[in-house]
Amino acid sequence: MSAHESMEQADQAKEASSENKKIALLIAVIALCLALSETLGKSAQTESITKNVEAANLWAFFQAKSIRHTVVQTAAEQGKLSLGAAGDDAAKAALQKQIDDWQATAARYRSDPKSGEGQAELSERAKHAEEERELAAAQYHHFELASAAFQIGIVLASATIITGIIALSWVSGLLTIAGIIMTGLGLYFPHLLHLH
pTM for the complete prediction? Predict the structure, then answer.
């Protein structure tokens, strides 16, 4: 081997080493983005599950209040029917007081702004929890797609080192940009694309 050939090989090795360092840096950046999107995705998934349980609990509480409301309202209506059969004025007054108490209780079951546990308030809280669940689910789907883009980008960048095909690193870079865009959409505009 001549000195000239040795110099060319050394230059090529140096150039390949420089390219590999750039690809390794690209892989490190993509891995960082992947870690962030995975963390955001897990957080969104947990929030979605939590809000789903909260909404289910609130709707169950709403149903219990509905049953209580119906029972008390029925008792009040039954009492009204019995008023005519009541014998003396004292019995009528006592029955009327009971009817009034039942009606007040039924009204409180229907709406109780003070405690926030009337049917109207529970319904609003449950709907709000459902909206938060849907938001978290939409975010989760965006973060999952971003993670997939980052993972494929890492594979392609790694393949660039093995094969020497630079086009793979460009595709890897494009996938990284796509993943960053999906992460941004998940954070700021999760309902822009309907992914679920």
Answer: 0.81
